[in-house]
Specification:
This is ABC-2 type transport system ATP-binding protein. By secondary structure, this protein is of the alpha/beta class. It has ten helices and 14 strands. It has a six-stranded mixed beta sheet with strand order 6-7-8-3-9-10, with helices on both faces. Strands 2-1-4-5 form a four-stranded antiparallel beta sheet. The chain has a four-stranded antiparallel beta sheet with strand order 12-13-11-14, with no helix packed on it. Strand 12 and strand 13 form a beta hairpin. It is globular and about 70 Å long. The protein binds adenosine-5'-triphosphate. The site of adenosine-5'-triphosphate has 11 residues, from strand 2 and helix 1. Adenosine-5'-triphosphate binds next to strand 2 and helix 1.
Length: about 300
């Protein structure tokens, strides 16, 4: 295991004209750690990754990959493998040819493991990449990255084109990378995905780091949105554990529910309820509820 952190940023800041895309980010990913970067659209996730890859220059602050300045692209890219959100491949080459090309230019590859990943991701490497779907292009990039011995994997929304079975393969491969002592920085919109694979999650909103916490602590972000339509007198939810943000109007009751629903259901059971819907809020809603005042 390496002594230096895989990623270290201090006061990392990027302005585009008057727009502050990233504002004073302090982030450390330890060697062997899997860290998620979570945030709604425009939060600054891609900007962070572009700065770490040396694709953009910081307005202020520093970004290091294992103590190498991220702007020293030649040295830094020997230490990392990157999967972009939108994978572009050479259309006339087959998947196999591209995997060989990427293996020859990257920081070294475990060919046996790569073949295993091709099988597990159900990738047909004999087809030209021009005929691949978005998901298949993403699989080529993922297989190429996971098969490297790069000590840091930087993955930007890597599963947006994958179906649920392939998402499971992705999660397994991240676990194997961690077991190998590799570090992973995973940028995502999906709370469930980062919860499944990350040790810690950094939450960005409007260019600022609003929270960084080990995954078990994210459970506090989970709450369901409940809507109840009733006739007669309104159910009384005062003091019911887990119930918050109660709104009642015209026979409609809305509230958020965290934790086990038993007490809320007991409180509702005395009322004449005609419909009850429960849904998980989107990440954007969770962020608004939770971090709204800090933005
Ligand atoms: N090249 C650029 N020129 C001007 N503004 C930019 C540029 N790149 C990003 N931005 C702006 O910086 C802010 C952060 O964008 P960024 O792409 O980092 O967000 P993100 O968290 O990756 O969002 P998404 O989930 O939508 O990809 C946004 O307001 C975006 O419009």
């Amino acid at each position: 295991m390496r002594a230096h952190p895989a990623v270290h940023t201090r006061d990392l800041t990027k302005h585009y004209g008057r727009l502050v895309a990233l504002d004073g980010l302090d982030l450390t990913v330890a060697a062997g750690e899997v860290v998620g970067l979570l945030g709604p659209n425009g939060a600054g996730k891609s900007t962070t990754i572009r700065l770490l890859l040396g694709l953009a220059r910081p307005t202020r602050g520093l970004a290091r990959i294992f103590e190498v300045d991220a702007a020293d692209v030649r040295a830094a890219h020997r230490l990392l493998a990157y999967v972009p959100a939108d994978v572009a491949l050479w259309p006339q080459l087959t998947g196999a040819e591209i995997l060989d090309l990427l293996a020859a230019t990257g920081p070294g590859v475990d060919a046996g493991y790569r073949d295993e990943l091709v099988e597990r991701f159900a990738l047909d490497p004999s087809r030209p990449a021009g005929a691949y779907s978005t998901g298949n292009r993403q699989k080529v990039a993922l297989v190429a990255a996971f098969a490297t011995r790069a000590p840091l994997l930087v993955l930007d929304e890597p599963t947006s084109g994958l179906d649920p079975l392939m998402e499971l393969q992705f999660r397994r491969a991240v676990g194997e990378a961690r077991d190998n002592g590799q570090s992973v920085l995973l940028c995502s919109h999906q709370l469930a995905e980062v919860e499944a694979v990350c040790d810690r999650v950094a939450i960005l909103r409007a260019g600022r780091l609003v929270d960084i916490a080990p995954v078990p602590q994210l459970r506090r972000l989970h709450r369901n949105k409940v809507t109840v339509r009733f006739t007669g007198s309104a159910p009384d939810l005062a003091g019911v554990p887990g119930v918050e943000a109660v709104e009642e109007r015209d026979g409609l009751l809305r509230f958020t529910l965290a934790g086990p629903p038993a007490a809320a259901l007991r409180a509702l059971s005395g009322a004449e309820i005609s419909t009850l819907t429960v849904r998980e809020p989107s990440l954007e809603e969770i962020f608004l509820d939770y971090y709204g005042e800090q933005a």
